[in-house]
Structure formats: structure tokens, C-alpha cells
Specification:
- The protein is mainly beta.
- The protein has one domain (2-121): Jelly Rolls (Sandwich), CATH 2.60.120.10.
- It is built from no helices and twelve strands.
- The strands form three sheets. The chain has a six-stranded mixed β-sheet with strand order 2-1-10-7-12-5, with no helix packed on it. The protein has a four-stranded antiparallel β-sheet with strand order 6-11-8-9, with no helix packed on it. Strands 3-4 form a two-stranded antiparallel sheet.
- It is globular and about 45 Å long.
Length: 123
């Protein structure tokens, strides 16, 4: 089972990290090949990519819909309102709750540029 990080407001409105499980079920995804494990689909509205140079400092912004961030290259550090900081590396995922205009401090760490796929979820 895989887990992905979530950045969501708590009952006071402050953002906090949590971890959510992602379940998989066997599916004949590409017959005649053997079944592979596939997660449930997430409806998406749009997808775009963001590349940031080493040392870049800024903020992730929440929008009117949930957003799934997939780290493809480099390392991006993100801070929640409770000051917990997590570093996202290639292969890691973060879902940011909807909340128009919220900003989460982030920075590119390490010697490499980062590449992130941003998927605006349609749910």
C-alpha cells in the first residue's frame, strides 16, 4: 500500500500534514499482459508542469479545487501552518485541499532544479 501526503486545514483553519492511504486492486489494464495493481481514478480538470531552479523560494498556492502535486525531479520542501516541514522527492505526492488563495511556503533544496506535475482535481 502506498501513502501520499495531504495538506489540509484542521478544525481551527490552520493547515496540517496528514498521510492518506492509496489502495490498489488487480486489473487487466493492458491485456493480454498479466493484471497489474491499479488505484481508483481521480477525476482531473487540468494538468500542468512547474520547473523551479535550485535555491528557488516561494509558495505553493491552493486554488478553488484540490490539487495533486507529483514530484518528478529535484526536491521541494513545503511548510504547513503548524510549522511541520516535509521534503518531497521524485515519486512522492502531495494533495493540497481547496482554499482559494492559501499559501504554503516552499523552496527547492539540493543542487538540482525541481520538476512538479500539478493536477487540478475535479471533485
Amino acid at each position: 500500500m502506498m501513502h501520499y501526503a495531504c495538506l489540509e486545514p484542521d478544525t481551527t483553519g490552520a493547515s496540517r500534514f496528514s498521510d492518506a492511504p492509496l489502495s490498489f486492486s488487480p486489473l487487466a489494464y493492458a491485456p493480454p499482459a498479466s493484471p497489474v495493481d491499479v488505484s481508483p481514478p481521480l477525476p482531473a480538470a487540468s494538468v500542468f508542469f512547474v520547473s523551479s531552479p535550485p535555491g528557488w523560494v516561494g509558495a505553493l498556492r491552493s486554488g478553488v479545487c484540490r490539487q495533486l502535486f507529483l514530484c518528478l525531479a529535484g526536491q521541494v520542501e513545503v511548510r504547513a501552518d503548524d510549522r511541520e516541514t516535509r521534503c518531497f522527492r521524485p515519486g512522492s505526492a502531495l494533495v493540497i485541499a481547496a482554499g482559494a488563495g492559501r499559501e504554503y511556503p516552499c523552496r527547492v533544496v539540493g543542487p538540482d532544479a525541481s520538476l512538479v506535475a500539478v493536477i487540478q482535481l475535479d471533485d
